[in-house]
Write a structure and sequence with these properties.
Distance between the termini of chain B: 22 Å
CATH topology of chain A: Glutaredoxin
Strand content of chain A: 25-35%
Strand order of the largest sheet of chain A: 2-1-3-4
Largest sheet of chain B: 4 strands, mixed
CATH architecture of chain A: 3-Layer(aba) Sandwich
Number of strands of chain A: 4
CATH architecture of the largest domain in chain B: 3-Layer(aba) Sandwich
CATH class of chain A: Alpha Beta
Shape of chain A: globular
Strand order of the largest sheet of chain B: 2-1-3-4
Shape of chain B: globular
Number of strands of chain B: 4
Order of helices and strands of chain B: HHHHEHEHEEHH
Helix content of chain B: 40-55%
Number of domains of chain B: 2
Radius of gyration of chain B: 18 Å
Structural class of chain A: alpha+beta
Structural class of chain B: alpha+beta
Largest interface: A-B, 15 and 11 residues
Helix content of chain A: 25-40%
Oligomer: heterodimer
CATH topology of the largest domain in chain B: Glutaredoxin
Number of helices of chain A: 3
């Protein structure tokens, strides 16, 4: 396991649960025990943010819409690789 | 999209919609007693020369539907001149495409008024702009008086759990305090919308 954690902040008043769970599921299948955690944060105001470690890899307000799962997976893969001991 | 009597009749009544809700029914019903009807608005709708057909687009997960649908439901019950029929947005893409917010957003609730011949008189979307503005200002005040909440534009996941919970509590309190204004504004806008179109 690495110290890489993924946080998904989603607007609970906008019905974004489905997209949140789909992304979390994709990450769980792809990385199994390689992540230290996947945190789901219910929020409001049209939010859908994905943070991998310290890096905000997607923000609905900044980037528009929902992220492509493959783009998030690529970001996580990079973070996991970077977090491995040399 | 043309609304027809046949299609209109397939919409759910307010009570049937609530009964079919898979979630948040208790939140909708908790909001009903908060609706203080404006006597002028009630008098206006009661005095319409003919009853109106009212199409509402909704989904049961939507915060603005939970907040504002009760206003329309309570008003319709009180005045008796608004035949309310509720349709699910996601099952009726042709309807929401007709009433996109700013031409691009599928915002709900949508409340569309039709006369007896199903000519549209006008439609209303989501919430009054005055409510959005008031709450944005109040939100700014909350952040200004609570430096521990950080910047209002900062990603919320960066706040410690306890601070985020405290912020959520403050925001909910603010929403509760502004609800009477919001409900009065919804009624005012619905009345002005219908008053702007002569009902023949």
């Amino acid at each position: 396991m690495t110290a890489v954690k993924v946080k998904i902040t989603y607007c609970a008043e906008c019905g974004y649960e489905e997209q949140t769970l789909a992304l979390a599921k994709a990450l769980m299948y792809e990385f199994a025990s390689q992540l230290s955690g996947i945190e789901l944060i219910p929020w409001e105001g049209g939010t859908f943010d994905v943070r991998v470690g310290d890096r905000l890899v997607h923000s609905m307000k900044r980037d528009g819409g929902f992220p492509e799962p493959q783009r998030v997976i690529a970001a996580v893969r990079g973070a996991v690789a970077g977090a491995r001991p040399a | 999209m043309t609304m027809t009597p046949e299609r209109f009749s397939t919409g759910l009544s307010y009570e049937a919609y609530k009964a079919a809700m898979s979630r948040n029914r208790e939140r909708v019903e908790a909001n009903e007693p908060k609706v203080i009807l404006d006597p002028e608005v009630v008098r206006f709708f009661k005095g319409l020369p003919q009853p109106l057909n009212v199409v509402v687009l909704a989904e049961d997960w939507c915060g603005d539907v939970i907040a504002n649908l009760p206003v329309i439901g309570v008003l319709a019950k009180a005045v008796g001149t608004l035949d309310l029929r509720i349709f699910y947005r996601d099952q009726n893409p042709d309807l929401i495409e007709r009433w996109l917010n700013q031409g691009k957003y599928q915002s709900i609730p949508v409340v569309a008024f039709f006369d007896q011949r199903f000519r549209e008189l006008g439609h209303w979307i989501e919430r009054p702009a005055s409510v959005t503005e008031l709450r944005a200002r109040k939100r700014g005040e909350i952040f200004a008086t609570h430096p521990e909440f950080g910047s209002p534009d900062a990603p919320i996941d960066q706040l410690p759990d306890d601070v985020r919970a405290a912020l959520q509590t403050e925001l909910q309190k603010m929403r509760d305090e502004t609800t009477p204004f919001a409900y009065a504004e919804v009624q005012r806008e619905l009345r002005e919308l219908v008053a702007a179109q002569p009902v023949r």
